[in-house]
Amino acid sequence: MRFPIRQKIALLIVLPTVLILLMVFAIAGHKFQKRSTEDVERQMTELAWRYANQFDGHLREAAQLARSTAAAMEVYSNSTPENLFQLMEQTFKHNQLLFGVGLAFQPGAFQGKDRFGVFVYYDETGALKRSEIGSESYDYTEEKWEWWHAPQKAGTGVWTDPYFDSGTGTVLMSTYSVPFYNKEGEFQGVAFADLALEPLRQLVDSRIASDLNFTILTQSGKYVFHEDPTKILNDSIFDKAKQIGSEEAMQFCVELTSGKSGLLKFRDLETEEEQWI
C-alpha cells in the first residue's frame, strides 16, 4: 500500500516517539524493579534482625535467670532442700517460656550426698512440679551431659547445643548453665535454665507473614526450626546447598555460619520458585 507523503511523515514522527516511550518505560520499569528489589532486601533484612533480636532477647533473659541463681547460691550456701525448691519456684514461676530451672551439686558438696540436685518444671497440665535429680537412673555427671561439664571447663555460663529432652523425647530445648563456687573458690555445682524452643519459635513465628519462612540454625548449620519438622537437628543448610549444586550457595552457607550477613537468591529445585534467603 502506498501512503500519501503527509501520512509517511506522520508515521516517521510517531514510530520513533513510540519506540522512545517504550524505552523510557523499560528503563523506568527496570529502575522500579531495582528499587522494589532493594526495598524487599531491606525489609527482609530488617525482619530477620527483628525476629532474631526477639529470639535472642528471650535467650538473654533465661541466661540472666541462671546467673542470678548461681550468684544467690554463693551467698546462701547453707540451704535445705526445701529452701532450694522454694528458690527455684520463685525464680521460675514468672517465665512461661522456660521448660524448667534447677541446681545440681558437685558430688559430696551438698550435705555430703553423692549427687544431689533440685529441678522445678511445668508438666503437661501446666502444674508446677518438683523433682530431685541425681539418682542412679539419672547421673548428671556422665560425660554426655553438656550442661554439667561445659560451664566447669569454661568457668562461666554456657549454652548447650539444642537437643531433645531425653525424659520426654519431644521437648526441643537448649540449656544455659552457670557454675557457682564456695568462699574458697572451689566448684560447688551449676545453676541451669532449660529453655523450651518450640514455644519461643511459635511466639516469633506468629508475627511473620504467610509468604515468609522463619528458620533458625545452629552455628554448624543444622536446623533448629524448619517448616519441615523432620529436618530439625537432622539436616543442615549445607545439605540444601549440595542439592542446589551451586558454589555460590555453598559459599553463602560458609559465610552465614561464620557470623556474616548476606542475601542469596536461588530457584527451588522442587517448586521452581525463586527464593530469597
Briefly say what this structure is.
With 277 residues, the chain is an alpha+beta fold. It has six helices and eleven strands.
Shape: elongated
Low-confidence stretches: 1-27
Strand content: 15-25%
Straight-line N-to-C gap: 57 Å
Q: Could you report the average pLDDT, rounded to the nearest whole number?
A: 79
Largest sheet: 7 strands, antiparallel
What series of H and E elements makes up the topology?
HHEEEHEEEEHEEHHEE
Number of DSSP E strands:
11
Q: Could you say which structural class the secondary elements and strand pairing correspond to?
A: alpha+beta
User: What fraction, in percent, of the residue positions are helical?
Assistant: 40-55%
Number of helices: 6
Rg result: 29 Å
Can you describe what's shown?
By secondary structure, the chain is of the alpha+beta class. The chain is built from 6 helices and 11 strands. It has helices at 5-75, 81-92, 146-154, 197-205, 237-244, 247-257; strands at residues 98-105, 116-122, 128-133, 158-159, 163-164, 172-181, 187-196, 216-217, 223-225, 265-267, 274-276. The strands form 3 sheets. Strands 1, 2, 3, 4, 5, 6 and 7 form a 7-stranded antiparallel sheet that branches. Strand 5 (163-164) and strand 6 form a beta hairpin. Helix 5 packs antiparallel against helix 6 (247-257). It is elongated, with a radius of gyration of 29 Å. The model is unreliable at 1-27 (pLDDT under 50).
List keywords for this structure.
11 strands, alpha+beta, seven-stranded antiparallel sheet, elongated, 6 helices, two-stranded antiparallel sheet, 277 residues
